[in-house]
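We include the entry.

. . .
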Amino acid sequence: MAYETVIWEQTGAVGRLTLNRPETLNAWTARFGAELKQVIEGEATDDSVRAVLLTGAGRGFSSGADLRAGFEPADDGMPDIRTELHEIYHPVIAGIRRLPKPVVAAVNGPAVGIGCSLALACDLILIAESAFMGLAFVNIGLMPDGGSTAFVPPAVGKARAFQMALLGERIPAAQAVAWGLVNWAHPDDALMDEANSLTERLAAGPTRSYASSKRALNQAIYGDLDSQLDLEAELQHALGRTKDFLEGAAAFVEKRDPAFSGA
């Protein structure tokens, strides 16, 4: 099937999913999320696919939500973030975690906001040395979502999780490795060769063993992911109706510092 915002290719037992909005550093829109969901719940589940590689086209992995496109409004005209998270964002994240096969992320550039969450949802993560990650939600008056409140603390610990959530700073590749956010950092020009080699190795391995390990680790590490996603959706929906979010989104689009009021 042909998609507008993602590319799906299968070579042998390896499925390659490329985020394909390079002009926006692969920022999420409703269509982008819907197509990503369709691949994760469709082509990627086929038994002929034994491992999946996820990466971004162009200079970025994913820069997060496309604030210029905005969110669909609810009946009261305010952003309906709850519905968008439940119907588009979270099924992608949960779908990757529940896919009974390894999913490898090749973070080729910035992975920010929901883009960071998407990378962290994958099983093994490689990052280019020039790339960075970050929970930049706070910079526009929001909180981490996309499951990142579940994925980050077990990886980095309480102190660093709060640092990432409250400060929204960039985490360079070497720091991401040292903190346990990702598995390996590679020179930019070697990233995709390394990612392809790893994914092909996994695709030739014991698929049922991987599926069982993934299911058990999901239960041990993330517990009730669905409840955490629901909590994120409720809290984020409320934040999307604050003056601080409206100011943060406007400041981002206008490329200026936000003036938050706490309202």
User: Anything to note?
Assistant: The mean pLDDT is 96. The two ends are 45 Å apart (CA to CA).
